[in-house]
Design goal:
heterodimer; A: 421 residues; 8 helices; B: 446 residues; alpha+beta
Chain lengths: 421, 446
């Protein structure tokens, strides 16, 4: 089918096809049992057509209707406003294949997931027999992505991920529940159940922090990952920098954080979750230095922004079939630091998605946190992300984070406002 | 579609439903009035969901290959103890009311939105991004009870984000005008862009809110989010049944002040408009809290049968691939008899908070958080300077009893996309102004 699409697309002089096929299997769990199993294949493509500097984009998941989709893209290009900054689609580049998932995942079916479900529950209940897998899902997604353009780009890659999301509940005098999960490019191992159970039990007898105080706080790598995702990622996005939406605009080459902070983006790491040979325009992925000892070294780019800023394309184009290429990180990796300590440790926050990356102001509540080893409730933290990274101390427990392609240690923040009762 | 149902029943299903969902989306994106994206997207999907040997199985595909879909759905149904109560057959068609249909050419839409984007803005505005989207959808549903339902929907959305900068400071503000309807929804969008930009500039001078306990007035937009986060999620019956809700086993208990009334209405043409849910149950106006007393939960067919009640038509799935789960539709707080001036006069040192960037809830603890888009310091009954970065943290079992005054003003139905169990649902929210005492406000202290 892709051959037919490519052949018809040639009626446009300049084109780029982004094709995606996704087989997904999703097994929903309710009160420890499988409750709903769903599977299917979706297949679609998006096509960008350029008529000089006029671009049209059309997409469809109805692959049989490819001619209508391509004709729509051409029609849109003919009426679109020219983009004076557009200078063509990506050019072919030599790339190196990278192993990004374990093939065993491809053969897993709902029977395997039912077995995994039982084993995880058994692991959790071996810690405390009142713990239930209240609701959640175990799923698998196998994606085939192919990018073809009129400059000669023709790359194809496969990705596969196994995901578990669960709300676990401890029933008793005090109802305690927690949302946990894991994403993996290998089959999930049931021993994650023990860790989930321990986290849940640690939340018994929570108390509110007393008063309001400015104090040092450890952000566990999972909480730190929430801030990196909401603030740092958009700030290092070259598109946002060019459009003056990033606080790092005009800050390249300057100190923006403490000298403890060194962060790279690297899609070439074998068996890391975010690895790829080529990005979503077919450009090769590059190891990119973002922050080095607190100094901002560069941004994440696609072909469009790298040409505008006259720098090497970092290969971070990211898109779906219905959108133009945006920019996203691959594997964000932060270097280890040293041992850090504080009376207040926060494992995750609630409301991270409300953080405003442009100003960096945040005020969120503590979902999992401990003050002098006692679990907290009804407590908030507030601050400013760009201020807090100026005096950040970096810990030495670098590890994969649960649901993102981040490899981070925990960090110590000096001077966050902690608001309790 | 009847052929697929007959085949599934013949092969041993005790229940079957078929869905067809077709949609077309137009998107425009402008940055500083220059076009950044102009696109069209079409989608078509079929699904078959069966109950067989007490287990639910679902299969979906672009191609309506009945034999293959039925076979895959039946294979996915693992033996279990699920049941479904018999129901009547419903044959009804629904259509969103539209003044200006969206079926005109993309270049005409581009011209209109482009003109709006060129509006004059303050010099501190470094970027204004405008996002236009419209979706025309048709959802067809039928099931083995004999129901045949159809919903022809039209959604139009205009979002603007303005970035203001002065020296080293960068602030942003956004507005979202999104409703079920036609192009009339984005009429006069240039005024929305101007108001958004004005607020972004004002935020440059705003100081962070101080953290601590305060009396707070929430505006209707924020009050609606309060209803959604503080009550709505904990009333979703799957969370109640799984042991994850602080409102479990509290039906009939007084959990809020006497003049607090909260409902969820799928028939209202707000952002969460849901004339029938993903299980083919008609939407309805469900009372959750009446005069401060908890009255009911939000159900799917499955949770309803477990609790021995009728479904409330809240079984929504994000797409045909997903499991229908209890979701809110348009959650609202009913009018009271107070007014804004009366509320202001009650505050010695507190805040007036407006609009929301969203929120989150821990339903087992009853703890909820939501973030205000705008805030103003209130002292001795007067609105003083603008503040920024204020969030509210509350606990449903105490905060609902801390509502001192409920306004008699018009209920505003805003909304957004609510995330739960990996699925998104369009949900609307509404409320009058409310005065809530002794609220934990998150803010930065020196």
């Amino acid at each position: 089918m892709i051959d037919k699409i490519q052949s018809y697309a040639k009626k446009a002089k300049d084109f780029e096809i982004y094709y995606m096929k996704n087989y997904s299997l999703n097994c929903e769990v309710f009160n420890n049992e499988f409750d709903f199993v769903s599977s299917g294949l979706t297949e679609g493509f998006g096509i960008r057509v350029a008529n000089g500097k006029q671009i049209g984009l059309a997409s469809t998941n109805n692959i049989n209707d490819y001619k209508k989709c391509i004709d729509t893209a051409i029609k849109i290009a003919n009426v679109s406003q020219p983009d004076e900054n557009f200078s063509g689609f990506a050019n072919p580049q030599k790339s190196t294949a990278v192993e990004s998932f374990d093939d065993i995942l491809l053969g897993l079916d709902s029977t395997d997931f039912a077995k995994l479900n039982k084993e995880i529950i058994s692991e959790m209940q071996s810690v405390n027999n009142k713990i239930n897998f209240a609701q959640g899902s175990i799923s698998k997604s196998h994606i085939t992505r192919q990018i073809i353009n009129s400059n000669g780009v023709d790359v194809k890659e496969e990705f596969c991920v196994n995901v578990i999301n669960l709300q676990i509940v401890l029933k008793g005098t005090e109802n305690v529940s927690i949302d946990v999960g894991s994403e993996s490019n290998k089959p999930l191992n049931a021993d994650i159940g023990k860790g989930f159970a321990e986290r849940l039990l640690n939340l018994r007898n929570r108390e509110a922090f007393k008063g309001t105080k400015v104090m040092p706080v450890i952000l566990h790598r999972e909480a730190w990952a929430q801030f990196v995702s909401e603030c740092l990622e958009p700030a290092i996005n070259a598109e946002k920098v060019l459009e003056k939406k990033s606080p790092f605009n005009e800050k390249n080459g300057t100190s923006i954080g403490s000298s403890d902070i060194t962060i790279i983006d690297d899609p070439t790491k074998k068996m890391f979750m975010g690895s790829f040979a080529t990005d979503d325009e077919g450009s090769r992925g590059l190891r990119t230095s973002i922050i080095e000892k607190g100094e901002l070294k560069g941004f994440l780019h696609n072909s469009y922004t790298s040409k505008l800023m006259d720098v090497e394309n970092t290969g971070n184009a990211s898109r779906s079939i219905s959108t133009k290429p945006a920019i996203g990180s691959s594997n964000l990796i932060m270097e280890n630091g040293r041992k850090i300590d504080s009376n207040l440790m926060i494992r995750s926050v609630m409301g991270a998605h409300t953080i405003d990356y442009s100003s960096g102001d945040f005020s969120v509540s503590i979902a999992e946190g401990f003050y002098k080893d006692k679990p907290l409730r009804d407590t908030m933290i507030a601050g400013n992300f760009y201020e807090m990274i100026k005096s950040l101390e970096v810990g030495s427990d670098q590890k994969f984070c649960e649901n993102d392609c981040y490899y981070l240690p925990s960090v110590l923040v000096d001077g966050l406002t902690v608001i309790g009762k | 579609m009847q052929k697929a149902i007959n085949l599934a029943l013949k092969k041993g299903a005790t229940y079957c439903e078929i869905n067809r969902l077709e949609s077309e989306k137009t998107s425009l994106e402008f940055s500083n009035s220059k076009l950044r994206e102009m696109s069209n997207s079409t989608a078509l999907l079929y699904s078959i969901r069966v109950l067989k040997d007490g287990g639910w199985g679902n299969a979906f595909s672009l191609n309506y290959d009945v034999d293959r879909l039925v076979k895959e759905a039946m294979r996915n149904a693992r033996p279990s103890n699920k049941t479904i109560l018999d129901d009547v057959s419903i044959k009804q068609k629904f259509k969103t009311k539209i003044k200006e249909p969206l079926t005109f050419d993309i270049d005409e839409k581009f011209k209109a939105m482009s003109d709006y984007s060129k509006t004059h803005l303050p010099k501190q505005i470094k970027n204004t991004s405008v996002y236009y989207n419209d979706v025309i959808r048709k959802h067809e549903f039928c099931n083995s009870f004999g129901s045949e339902l159809e919903f022809q929907d039209s959604i139009c959305s205009g979002v603007v984000v303005s970035y203001a900068s002065q020296g080293d400071k960068l602030e942003s503000f956004f507005n979202n005008i999104s409703r079920h309807g036609g192009f009339e929804i984005v009429k006069d969008f240039d005024k929305v862009i101007q108001d958004t930009s004005k607020t972004a500039v004002e935020l440059l001078k705003a100081k962070p809110a101080k953290g601590g306990s305060f009396d707070v007035i929430v505006n209707p937009d924020l009050g609606g989010v309060f209803a959604h986060e503080a009550v709505g999620h904990a009333c979703e019956a799957d969370i109640v049944l799984s042991g994850g809700s602080a409102l479990a086993n509290r039906i009939g208990e007084e959990i809020g002040v006497n003049d607090l009334n909260i409902g969820d209405d799928g028939t209202f043409a707000g952002w969460g408009y849901c004339p029938f849910d993903s299980e083919g149950s008609l939407g309805q106006d469900t009372t959750l809290i009446q005069n401060g007393v908890l009255k009911g939960y939000l159900h799917t067919r499955d949770t309803a049968s477990k609790m021995g009640v009728a479904t409330t038509g809240n079984g929504r799935a994000q797409g045909l691939e997903s499991k229908p789960i209890p979701r809110m539709t348009n959650t609202y707080i009913g009018k009271g008899d107070s007014n804004f001036d009366e509320m202001l006069s009650e505050i010695k040192n507190g805040y007036y908070l407006k609009g929301s960037y969203g929120g989150q809830v821990d339903t087992s603890l009853g703890e909820f958080l939501f973030n205000a888009k705008e805030g103003f310091l209130v002292q001795n009954g007067e609105i003083k300077q603008r503040v920024k970065g204020a969030s509210i943290l509350g606990n449903m079992l105490s905060t609902l009893k801390s509502i001192k005054l409920i306004g008699d003003d018009k209920i505003f139905h805003g909304g957004g996309a609510c995330g739960k169990a990996g699925q998104y649902a369009l949900t609307g929210e509404g409320s009058p102004h409310m005065l809530i005492t002794d609220v934990t406000v998150g803010g930065q202290n020196d």
